[in-house]
Write a structure and sequence with these properties.
- The protein is an alpha/beta fold.
- It has one domain: Glucose-6-phosphate isomerase like protein, domain 1 (Rossmann fold).
- 55% of the residues lie in helices and 13% in strands.
- It has 8 helices and 5 strands, in the order ααβαβααβαβαβα.
- β3, α6 and β4 form a beta-alpha-beta unit.
- α5 packs parallel to α6.
- The longest helix is centred in the C-terminal third of the chain and has 20 residues.
Length: 188
Amino acid sequence: MSYTEKIDSYLALLTETIKKLDRSEIEKAIICLKNARDTGRFIYSMGNGGSAATASHYAGDFNKGLSLGRKKRFKFLALNDNLPTILSLANDVSYESIFVEQLKNFLQSGDVIVAISGSGNSANIINGVTWAKEHGGIVIGLTGFSGGKLFELSDIHLHVPIDNMQIVEDLHMVFDHLMMSIMYGETE
């Protein structure tokens, strides 16, 4: 059995979806993240499942890859990386509260939230984003499918316009590496 046709089909779908990405929103995200760095603001990322892995990857790339050896450094925290806090909140309060309760401890007006949800409707993401916006947070929403509630709540939309979770998650990581590679080449 050969998988070549299926491989070609997946890569063709990925390529076609890349062509549909809103470049102006990617630029807005870069500017927002650089502004957060330059003004000493914190950036909080959050996601569930594969999106949690992406949120963690963003934090690693920005805290090390874009900060090591530089005068201007990012303050990037993945809220899904604090397992004891997440599990205690999920157990004692609700899973829907795992991000909002952490943001209540840390968020300052002007901080940035990188919220990642393929469907755009994850309750814990929506609760965190809603509270953050009410308290001066700036939201960069990474979504797919129709964008869901997260698209509506976001200030900046890194939206992948396709109903395919694998392509959506692929391109959420592409946003990270794309923005990182652009910023890496700047001397700041």
